[in-house]
Amino acid sequence: MEAKKKNIITYEGLKKYEEELEDLKVRRRKEVAQKIKEARELGDLSENAEYDAAKDEQRDIEARIEELEKILKNVEVVDEDEVDLDRVNIGCNVKILDIEFDEELDYKIVGSSEADSLNGKISNESPVGKALIGAKVGTTVTVETQMGETKFKVLAIDRSND
Q1: Which of 13, 54, 80, 124 could disulfide-pair with 36, CB 3.0 to 4.6 Å?
Q2: Strands 103-110 and 92-98
Q3: More confident residue, 27 or 79
Q4: pTM, to two decimals
Q5: Are 160 and 148 within 8 A, CB to CB?
Q6: C-alpha closest to that of 9 among 60, 107, 78, 64
Q7: What is the DSSP track for 93-128?
Q8: Residue 26, Cβ neighbours under 10 Å: how many?
């Protein structure tokens, strides 16, 4: 039997997922059940757009609940207060220099389920994240991208302030 891959997340990510799951189970399920009830009262379900929309919403909510429960069932939480700041690791912030463009970038290294590049959170499994894991301040890492090789120099490693 294949060993399940752990979902590595930060404590912040764990809280966010638990709150979303609670909201979906407690509030959103009731809301959509009420919408379905109201739509049923309108009569003929075969041509009832409100009923169809409510059923679609219910399906989406149940799918998200299932997804969150799967993530949380096999989770490994990274204690950001205990992250070793000698090397880049999951749960730390890293300031890097894109050598080609002479541009400083700030990222938080997170597990893949928490990744959100638009908000500066990159996965430890992404090409950049993978290259940075284990690097020390002053180290230059090379990342193979679709555009060729990109080099980044690690400028600083610190704790997450979120």
Answers
A1: 54
A2: antiparallel
A3: 27
A4: 0.75
A5: no
A6: 78
A7: EEEEEETTTTEEEEEEEE-GGG-BGGGTEEETTSHH
A8: 9
